[in-house]
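// run 5 | inverse folding | seed 20
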């Protein structure tokens, strides 16, 4: 068995756009970008015994992604999401339920994977908890020693305050967008600044690292008690599918490489922007393109409260 250093656990599916179908799902997108950065990542998910599922396996294998922990389900179809872009250039989603990735089952192979001493990070999202079977698998995975990375993905009606609080209490690193930050923090108090919202969540749920994407305005992070800011990278947006997932992969890669918090956010921000400039969540690119974007901008050290 390969000694993976990152597990990406959750949904893999097809984004059905008006003009085409694209492979997607946050865990797949994150795994793709981590693999592009030479991380030993494995995706844990489920697909149906159908053409859409086989096509996903073929694509993963073409990209060199490990497929040994993708479960085949004879009862449920491969996941699909019907996606469209609104007038603000934000993606809107209709997520089919139930599907194969709702039924990821815990087994001896998964148990051995999560006992691996080389495992550094477990990346998971809130959608995984919408069904009891996959939620049970997530509960067991969260008992591992890996750092827990929660990528909030609020898609009505597939979340609740109770479930999100359980997930927040379990994580070491929280990634979310500004809209999700404002919604979740509003459950506890009224705040006037993003900094107050972030600090409140950090203190209430004991989360040492919170990173927030701000769309075209860039990103911000709260890391070990200090705020960091990064301006947006100007790009012509093709679509925003998977840009947040790329952002997370860029941040984790930089942290594994012992980069500073400021540079990690700059790299994450540039990767997210690069992906937004290309169609789909898993476009082809070379990591050097990201470094070139950072060098060209030359403004990545922006810190302070």
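// decoded
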């Amino acid at each position: 068995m390969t000694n993976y250093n990152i597990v990406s656990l959750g949904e893999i599916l097809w984004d059905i756009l008006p003009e085409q179908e694209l492979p997607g799902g946050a865990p797949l997108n994150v795994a793709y970008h981590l693999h592009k950065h030479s991380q030993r990542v494995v995706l844990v998910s489920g697909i149906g015994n159908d053409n859409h599922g086989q096509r996903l396996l073929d694509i993963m294998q073409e990209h060199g992604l490990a497929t040994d922990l993708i479960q085949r389900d004879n009862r449920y179809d491969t996941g699909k999401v019907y996606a469209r872009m609104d007038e603000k250039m934000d993606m809107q989603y209709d997520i089919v339920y139930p599907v194969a990735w709702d039924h990821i089952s815990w087994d001896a192979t998964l148990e051995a994977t999560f006992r691996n001493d080389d495992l550094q990070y477990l990346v998971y999202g809130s959608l995984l908890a919408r069904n009891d079977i996959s939620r049970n698998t997530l509960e067991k995975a969260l008992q591992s020693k890996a750092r827990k990375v929660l990528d909030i993905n609020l898609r009505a009606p597939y979340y609740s305050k109770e479930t999100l609080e359980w997930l927040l209490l379990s994580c070491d690193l929280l990634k979310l967008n500004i809209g999700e930050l404002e919604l979740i923090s509003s459950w506890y108090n009224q705040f006037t600044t993003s900094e107050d919202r972030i600090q409140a969540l950090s203190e209430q749920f004991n989360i040492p690292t919170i990173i927030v994407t701000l769309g075209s305005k860039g990103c911000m992070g709260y890391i070990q008690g200090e705020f960091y800011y990064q301006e947006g990278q100007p790009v012509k947006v093709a679509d925003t599918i998977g840009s947040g997932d790329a952002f997370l992969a860029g941040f984790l890669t930089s942290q594994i490489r012992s980069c500073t918090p400021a540079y990690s956010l700059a790299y994450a921000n540039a990767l997210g922007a690069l992906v937004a400039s290309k169609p789909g969540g898993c476009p082809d690119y070379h990591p050097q393109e990201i470094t070139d974007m950072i060098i060209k901008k030359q403004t990545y050290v922006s810190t302070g409260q």
